Amino acid sequence: MAKSAKKAAKKVVKKAAKKAVKKAPKKAPAKKAAPKKSAPKKVAKKKSARKPNAAFMTPLTVSDALAKVVGNKPLPRTEIVKKIWVYIKKNGLQDKQNRRMINADAALKPIFVKDQISMFEMAGVLNKHVK
Q: Quick check: is 69 in a domain?
C-alpha cells in the first residue's frame, strides 16, 4: 500500500505543476519583423551521367559477313548492335508471334547460322564476328 500511496502523491504533484504552467501569464506576441532577403539558394550539383566503360567504346573490326549488314568501318560493340537492330526492324525480321525471336534472312543467315535466333543469343553470336 505504501508504494501505491507514493504513486498517487506523485500524480497529484504532476497535475498541479501542469495547471501552474497553464495559468502562467502569456507573453505578448512579438512584432513581426520584415521578411529577410534570403541569399540565393545553392542549387545542388547534378550527378554527371554514368561514364561508359571504355571497353564498349573501342572500335572493333567486323567480319565480312557482318560487314554486309553494318558496314566495313570499325565500330564499337554498341553501335554494331544498334545497326543490327535497325536492319532487323527495317526488314521486319522479328517473329510475329514471339517478338523475342529474330528470323534470319539471306544477309543474317551467315552470321546467325540458324534460321531463327533469340534476341538474347544475338550478342553471343555477334561476338564471334568481331575482333
A: yes
On whether the CB atoms of residues 126 and 111 are closer than 8 A, the answer is: yes
Answer yes or no: is 80 within a domain.
yes
Confidence of residue 96 (pLDDT cuts 50, 70, 90): very high
DSSP label at residue 59? -
Joined grid coordinates for residue 77: 560493340
Whole-angstrom Cα distance, residue 104 to residue 65? 13
- DSSP class of 58: S
**At 65, which CATH number?**
1.10.245.10
Residue 86 is assigned to a structural domain of this protein: yes
Domain carrying residue 80: 57-127
Residue 19 lies in a domain: no
Question: What is the rounded distance in angstroms from the CA atom of residue 44 to the CA atom of residue 85?
Answer: 38
Global confidence as pTM: 0.59
Find how far residue 105's CA is from the centre of its chain.
Answer: 35
Q: In Å, how far are 87, 88, 92, 111, 120 from 99, measured between CA atoms?
A: 15, 11, 11, 19, 12
